[in-house]
Amino acid sequence: MKGVEVTVERVTRSYGDFKALDDVSVTIEKGEFFSLLGPSGCGKTTLLRIIAGFDYPDSGRVAFDNKDVLSLPPEKRQSNTIFQTYALFPHLTVYENVAFALRLKRVDNKTIDAKVKEYIRLVQLEEHLYKKPSMLSGGQKQRVAIARALINEPSVLLLDEPLSALDAKLRQNLLIELDHIHDQVGITFIYVTHDQSEALSVSDRIAVMNKGKVLQIGTPYEIYEAPATRFVAQFIGEANIFECTVLSCEPYEEEYLMKVDVPALGAVIQVTDYDPQPIGSTMDFTVRPEKVRITLAPPRTTKAEVNILKGIVEEPVYSGFQSKFYVKLDGVNETLVKVYKQHTVFLDDGPDIEWLDEVYVSWHADDGYLVKDSSQ
Predict the structure, then answer these.
(1) Both 179 and 267 in a single domain?
(2) Which residues span the domain enclosing 93?
(3) What pLDDT band is residue 169 in, cutting at 50, 70 and 90?
(4) Residues 229, 245 within the same domain
(5) Which pLDDT value is given to residue 332?
(6) pLDDT for 226-260, tens place per residue?
(7) What's phi and psi for 137, nearest 5 deg?
(8) Are 253 and 356 in the same domain?
(9) Is there a single domain that holds both residue 32 and residue 10?
């Protein structure tokens, strides 16, 4: 495996009274595509800049393959950084932009030519080799920036919101290309983004950050399906999330079947892999909108583990491939529950559920999740 292991140990960074990073520790494995994800101001770019050597922590340690790099300037670290602004030389061609770093090192022309063409092929810009940046689209400029960063053969590629200036469709296409490039070069990628769909799409693992702290590190599946805190549950995707109190907790196969009192919903049955929770303890109950079923007729089930509630469609939103429903539940503080219904068949007359329809919403106890940490 190429690349290096990047270790961040108890890093803190303040700017006056503002604490950008608060005792952050992360280990990024060799060759991993790792994302730092969070809202603006959460500290993710500050952490990337410290890893790159453009900023320095007040305390803590940064190491590549267990070698401390804090004393090294950016050009002496085994890393290169790609910024959202491309930072190309406007007067140079694509070829010369990519060759620039090798020319600084006084590499011979034959080697430069072979290397430039190798990395231009990697980013699929062979037809644009002798164009200047003003003749390229935003996506093409970013691919030039990627080739220029990779030609130095770094062990770590740092990407600071590299796709944020692109439109949505181009951003998705380039994201797939970026993942393909990572598979080919095999080095460590550290990717900063505020877009959770980007992070979920390409990452081996993700660190979710907020207010200078790392709240959870895990695979995209773990982050989405088993959020560690209320903030993570709300930030990643969409979620119905409510405070609850534990009423009972009984063994269920290899897990536990809990009944919780959700003031916004009533009594809810939930399967959990947590250790037994004390009666009366408080948690957050969450269920993703796509895991909730919506029907005009009562669900046909005899399973005690299925939660069934009745309500009225307050707002239907048709989105082509799916419909989003906001359902006001009967007699429970007029709570709204979000439900997403995928359109898997041709809709000759549009969705069968409409505004003000009386409906049933249901989900199995396996499909919700209990979040222990409500403080963040």
Answers:
(1) no
(2) 6-234
(3) confident
(4) no
(5) 64
(6) 999 999 999 998 999 999 999 999 888 888 899 99
(7) -80, 170
(8) yes
(9) yes
Q: Are residues 16 and 152 in the same domain?
A: yes
Q: Are residues 317 and 217 in the same domain?
A: no
Domain containing residue 180: CATH number:
3.40.50.300
pLDDT digits (tens, 9 = 90+) for 259-275: 999 988 889 999 988 88
**pTM, rounded to two decimals:** 0.90
Kindly state whether residues 43 and 192 are assigned to the same domain: yes
Q: How far apart are CA 47 and CA 161, in angstroms?
A: 13
- CB atoms near residue 197 (< 10 Å): 13
Q: How many domains does the chain have?
A: 2
